[in-house]
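Exercise 7. Predict the joint structure of the components listed below.
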Amino acid sequence: MTFAFYVIAALTVAGGLAAVLLRNTVHCALAVTIAFAGLAMLFLDLDAQFAGFAQILVYIGAVAILIVFAILLTRNSETPRDGVFSRNWFAGLFVAAAIFAVLGWAVLHSIAVLPNHAAVPAVTVAQIGQALVGRYVLPLEIVALLLTAAMIGAVIIALDEKGRTK
Amino acid sequence: MIDHPIVYQADQIFVLLKHWLIGQLPSSVQPAAGVLLSVVVIICLFPALFAVTTIIERKGLGRMQNRLGPNRTGPFGILQPIADGIKSLTKEDIVPTSADGVVHFLAPVLLVVVVFMGFAVLPMGRNMALTDMDAGLLFFFAIGASTELSVFMAGWSSRNKYSLLGAMRAVAQMISYEVPLLLSSVAVVMITGSLSLNKIVEAQNHYTWGLPHWYIFTPWGLAGFLIFCIAATAETNRSPFDLPEGESELVAGYHTEYSGFKFALFFLGEYVGMFSISGLGATLFLGGWSAPLQILNFIPSWFWFFSKLMAAICVFIWMRGTFPRLRQDQLMNFAWKFCLPLVLTNLFVTALWRFLGEGWLRWALCTAILVVVYVAMARAEMRSGHFGSRRYRYAE
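Solution:
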């Protein structure tokens, strides 16, 4: 636990809290981006270059932009008069706390399950690449096929129907 | 030839200077001071290059449009960038009343910070990269993806329809062209077998009969380089892909509501982005800091890197003075229906090149596949009317 960890962790938590508590939806989306960036920095702090850069590339470069586009294109980004908070926020808080407790419990007990992995593993990007196209090539291909199918589906939904276009 | 002491010292002059400067400090602060010094040099160097580029651009465009360009400040107007800098510093900073203050302020700052971070992994000469990251290329693209967010922040926070439209166009364009940009670089990674930019340059720094082994001199490299150039132009919102700031319809796009130094920051961000993407293109396909001929190896490596970079900038300026602007539908069709299939073909050809082994067969086969696919696709697209005159859906 270094000084850098505390700074990054504070930033990430602050981003997450701001994403939940801010009133303007676009501000919330931008605050989520701060949390994403904080997570990426935590990965980099742990020497996990691939995970860190993939986090930036996918979450900041794509997911954040997607969220922002969805907010702007689906409805007015102005905040409604009666606020954006759901009335049963208490139940939501309870569910979130329960999930957090389960995850925390699992993480804290994982050392007992994997005693041999106590030392920090040094995994380079090249090793990840070789594992992806070597040992795990079948799962990779299946995921690729699934994503392609999803993309074609999205295109077909967005496509104009034949009769209507000129 | 690099072994000759004078040649070596000229080549490594900045590295040796840095070591000498750091050597003056106590050893406990040396690593931090080394990084700090490199960062300060990068942050000073590229804005200076930006100043030089603005004058080249204004003079060059003036020539192409049969006028003189700036000629009042200093001899031949070469002090114009300094005058512009002072002007933008002393101008009033206007923030629209309805604008979102914090986001409006953060957008240019974020853009400049993100754009400068790309230089951290670019090797600007032999032993002259700030960090030799294992995943340098991945870092570069990850950082580049964050510029979209700052463009969006600028457009949205201004509360202006022109700004928002410009930002939406810019983000859509940058996302679309990021795909061919990334995939054309993947071909280089496939051949080199490494994401480290230093290793990519080292792999090209060999000579046969005095000629370099740059990737541009292979069929897949040439195709990849051309697609990379197109995508890089679109990624930096330069003409002919400068729709996000199309003056005739959007005033100035996402930075319409910025004035004074914040506008200057956007301007700086755009040019520094051009420098970094040109540097990446030179590193990936043009051999980075390696000399174009073996006998020219006595000229320092950093000279070659910056020559390639400035040559790329001059091509950017040339294109701006030559090509008319594309339409939005042409822009999107071109990215998704032409560049993307072509770059996927290029990936296949690259794999073929890698596994066919040495010989004339792979040259013939790879070139033939690329040419056939290019011609077939271009003809099919022209016939289907994607690149021709526009078909209007609502206004006829």
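Discussion. Residues 5-383 of chain B form one domain.
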